Amino acid sequence: MHRLILKTTAALIAALIGIVLIIYQQSYLKSSFHDTEKIGDSFRVLHTDYIALQRIVLQASYFPYFDNDTILSQIEKIRERLDGLYKERRLQRAVYSETRSELQSAKRDFEELAKTIYEFLTLNASLKNSTVYLPTLALKAYEVFDIHSEHDRQVTVLLSKINETLFLAKNALDESFLEEVKEYKKELEELKKEVSENDKRRLLQASIGHLDLFLKVFPKFREDLEEILDLKFQKELESAIGRFSEESKREMGHINTLADLFLTLYLISILVVIYFIFRSEKENIELKRVRDQLRKSLVTDHLTGLENREAYVVRKRMMAHPALILVNIDRFKHINEFYGSKTGDAVLQKSAEILKEIVPKYLRAHIYRLGGDDFGILYEFKSRERTESVIRQILKHFQEKTLNIEGILVDISISIGASYNDKLLETADMALKIVKSSKRLRYTIYDPSMDLSKTIARNIRALKQLKQAIARGDIIPYFQPIIDLGDGSSNKYEALARMRTQSGEILGPAHFLDAAKEAKLSGDITAAILRQTLKIAETCDMTFSVNISAGDIMNIYDRNTIFELLETHRGCSSRIVFEIVESEDIEDYDILGEFIGRIREFGCEIAIDDFGSGYSNFEKLLQLQVDILKIDGSLIKELDTNEHAALVVQTIVDFAKAAGFKTVAEYVHSKSVLDKVRSLEVDFAQGFYLGRPSSELKCGQQAYID
Amino acid sequence: MDPGLSADRSVACVSCHSFDHGGADPRPVSIGSHGNKGVANAPTVYNSYFNFRQFWNGRAKDLKEQAKGPLHNPAEMGMVTEEIERYLRGSDFYTEAFRNIYGRAPTHDDALDAIAEFEKALITPNCKFDRFLRKETKLSKLEYRGYKLFKTLGCATCHNGINVGGNSFQKMGLIFQYPWREGLPDRYDITHSPADKNVYKVPTLRNIELTAPYFHDGSVPTLELALKKMAYHNLGFDLSAEEIEALVAFLKTLTGETPRIIGESR
Hints:
With 706 residues, chain A is α/β, with parallel strands linked by helices. Chain A has 22 helices and 18 strands. A two-stranded antiparallel sheet of chain B has the order 1-2.
């Protein structure tokens, strides 16, 4: 920011300097032209004035009388002009030094000229005095002299000649006439000697005086006048003018140089601005590049080079009808554990490459790595058929795929969940979970009916409650009587798990059992129920059934807990029946067999719960040497209405009898069902019709059916 | 008019440039402080502004420069710069007046300037000849004859211009020499060129009937005699009585009005 301000300021200053310089240049040029013009005019006026002065002086020399003031004022005028010009402000500049020195010498010369003019005025008056007065004397001579006398006539003729010659000499400024004048003067002096009359002598004396004066003054007068009319000062002036125009041209040259300089500075300032603009633009581009790179690195998965979840979120927002195919590598965790994470990474990379290759181009799909081993294929939804066809292509390609990772052959398979619903990723994931939890499904496309999201949400809540309940000891057994249909009495209870909430509410297993299984907490629940039941059994001489899941049995920890509990209650452990749900969960029949063997040592019996619901493996059951089959409640509750159910129950009862197993009917909720159960010769029954689960229990044989 | 500007407080400018005598000195030569006699007749102070130079030999180029001369001349007022300033500053009247005009205490230079400014007001316009030239009046026959003679005899060659003189240097005694001695205030006194002996600034002829005695040496007491002498020395001829009468009549038409500023101060 600081730098930006600095740059902006620099650019502004540069521009400002440029503008100021240009304005300065303009005004400078203007004043220059104005001054030069003015000075040129002054020179011209000076020249005119000088010519006028010459003219006036010439007039003064010709006119018998003339106003000297005009000459003096003209001199004064020129003097002032010269002074003014010399003091002209512009001419004070160094560049005009020669003009100034020319003007200086012009001034000096003009003063000389003025002196000459003053002298001329004196001489002019003297000469005029004589040239005006000599004719007057000649005229007077006719009165004084007698023209009839030879001598006197000579005098008058001589005086006339003298006048004629003087006229020529003066008006032609011709000095050569002076010789004649001298001759005449001599003659006049000769003639004067012969004159005795006083008035005649005076006249001649005066005439001689005037001639004398003329002879003495004329050469100087002529010289002065010629000097005044000479063009010397004019030339001086012209030379000054020439010098001035030369020097003003030189100054113009300076000004032009200055103008060029200003222009250059202005251009530089513009260049500076352009440079800054260029620089900032360049920086912008660079910044943009870095930003793009950063963004790319932010939205790219470094391992596979695919875009990551961030990119997915951004892209999805821009799409009209996005569809997502979620591809998950099966048992990737196992691959990682077995081969090491390096190989696992390579598997992910290869899978990414394969996906990039095989996803059809027409889909214009974007492929993402969305999580650990989840890949997403995002594209605009067209039809369900198209989606399925793409999924099938992918599956086909990955079917029984063996990847060669640096010589290690890794078998992989994939599961696919897809969706084009809202909450794209969640729903696709839900679909994927369904596939995962199924043995046979390879892919599924989400539809709202499979919405597990509510269940999941509930499970999460339940799980939280469950954990707290386990910690508090609020998982408690409720007891439901199991009635011997032979005599209508009972000495058996089934211990059913209940959860007591903090508000004292009692919840059935439907609320927490799924969550417990998911969270592998079912062992804890089994242990809690078993512990409490054993405690009760110590004082209550009844038989108690306790539920146990296959998962619990498979878990060594849970198994051992059960063994320890039975061990500590040796006295009553023989009155415990373990009800195992017959289900697919039983993966290892050896472990199950071993477990059953162990608990038989404590005198416990084994019941198969929900028999008839899963796919019952009769052979395995026989091997396991169970004691009781608890017929699936869903069959029992329909017994009075569903012929088919009755048939199945009949079959089970027949099988049980043949195998020596006792049978128990659950979910007996009505008299008619009870009657049916009886008629089918089921050994025991339980259900709401016979007794609801309760925290209270009655010890000792009880009669239920009369 | 203040004799305080002379060394012994005895003379003022007006002592030699008398308003009763056309601004000139009725004595042949002026008498300065301590009774020192000058060498020349004081020229009129009237219309002196129109002269192209000041003093008989034109050694001052303007009035200001001229004013300095008599003030410092030991034979005239005999002052020095410091004394002039001290005198003026000692006076409340001058101190206040100078402050009003020049914005500072009296200085020597300002004093000269003030005197010169005053002299510019000493003009005598509207003489009969002026009015004649402006065609406002007519000259009498005698005067007119005098005017014609003034031109034909050559007087006008030197006595011309606004001041009827005062615009060139001319020689006294062109034809017949005029007495000369060393020390006269002529051009020779400045240039020391022999041709400049007895060369003087042509005096103005305005108010000439009031400014007797005449010539640089104040040697001629009347106009008639002055005319006669001028004719003899510069024309080499004697004027007739009729000519003199006419010329005198003409010269008397050159007497103008008394400067207004004098009327005011009186």
